[in-house]
Amino acid sequence: MTSFLFISAIISGLVLLIWGADKFIDGAAGIASNLGVAPLIVGLTIVGFGTSAPEMIVSAFAAFDGAPALGIGNAIGSNITNI
Asked: If we measure between CA atoms, which residue out of 46, 62, 41, 52 comes closest to residue 82?
């Protein structure tokens, strides 16, 4: 029964991730349309910030908790993944 719950949670998480990403991109396209700018500009600024926000929050909490190495590792790992 535990493996069923585990697999269900993973599938549910993936479905919600895809749904959320779709809504995020639709919202960014709407912002670009409302502002009258190219979607590329919104993608490079707002979407870029939105996708980097979790790493920035983790790094900030790590620094406040006295573990700056965790923040540095997070930044390096994020950049390697983005490449």
From this structure: 52
Rg value, the chain, Cα: 17
- Rounded to two decimals, the pTM is 0.63
Alpha helices (H) in the chain, listed in sequence order: 2-35, 39-42, 48-64, 68-82
Instruction: Quick: pLDDT tens for 19-39.
Output: 998 998 899 999 999 999 998
Distance CA 76, CA 41 (A): 25
Distance CA 34, CA 76 (A): 35
Residue among 78, 46, 83 nearest 59 (CA): 78
Length of the chain: 83
